[in-house]
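Q: Convert this sequence to structure tokens.
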Amino acid sequence: MESGPLRVIIVGGGHRSLTYAEYAQLNKDRMQIVGVAEPDESRRNMIAKRFSIPPEHCFRDALALSEAPKFADAVINGTMDHIHVETTLPLLEAGYDVLLEKPFAVNEREARLLADTAVRTGRKVMVCFVLRYAGFYRKIKEIMLSGAIGSVIDIHSAEYVSYHHMSTSYVRGKWNNSDRCHSTMLLAKCCHDIDIITWLMSETKPKFISSFGSCIQYRPENAPEGSGTYCLVDCPYVDTCVYSAKRLYLDHPDRWVVYVWDKLENIENPTDEDRRELLRTSPYGRCIYKSDNNIVDHQSVNILFENGATGSHSMIGGAATGTRKISVTGTKGMIYGDFEEGRLTVSIINPDPGCEKDDTEITVSEHENHGGGDLKLVEDFVAYCKGEKTSVSCTSIDGSLLSHLAVFLADESMEKGGIPLEIIT
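A:
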């Protein structure tokens, strides 16, 4: 590859793509945004203006880009989950390396097809499992690799999805119905967490998976008696319901701006009345108990690894606060941590008189998006494409396929009543 910045094209101009593209603005000598493919004309124009992209390098979609003469090194693909594979395949064939948003596929057939195509075309694909790059998880990996806690016996993680996040992204949002978005709750929200488990346990592989889960909160029968269909239209509980769109969104207008107010992004300085009017018809203004969601609000996954170690993950939706917790137990000690608080405790067995264990408290101070992992991931992608040394966190597609397979089988197990299923790699 030529010296100089990696030339990159944005495909799908959503929030995640633009977050990764910030790396180019902060590191102009390492990466440059030179093109865009986005079906929404206003967003396409906005991105072109922001990165000074000429009209001849602006395209409606990935297919149109793939059919044009190659003019860049790589692509950031931030399209919706169910079109990741169909948009990436022609770009690989056209000679582009790809940074691909997670999940990189929504079923096993597509996942294997994409991985095989990357090998056949000789292209590099990295998956946006940004939590691997967060200082919190990198520190856990470092401690495990040091041998401080010995051989791992068990690893457990839990994600508590806050009530307002559950409402916005899932029950009312883009990922509320697998028939449309083609992603399950576990795939859309927790493929990060399953990937963290398989990455931390990379000296072995998951062999059997089982899972249970259901939706017990966000159901029509749980709606308050006499409630309406839209919070700001016909509901008497608009000022008291925990999930009132008024209380979640109008009273917190900046918390979920990129999702809830996306239809207002072309309006300069939208007013409260503009927001109210949108919520009268928007899915985000619909009664949360009467939405057409079909996703679970809690799910647990159990894993048996080839070496006999065990692992598990729990997703709990509708929590008072959102965070991730993890514990890793080894033959010499254990690690326990809270991701949101950025705190780890390392406890080493000590049988000396008057002792039981020796504790070390570690604070990881990164509190940016995904624990500071977003731009570190892009930094690794640039190095990967340039043939430079990458970090231990590198999310190449061959290293990310296993966690996807684990998620697909977990959902299949849940549908079959929790029976264990074997992973065939």
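DSSP finds 15 helices and 15 strands in the chain.
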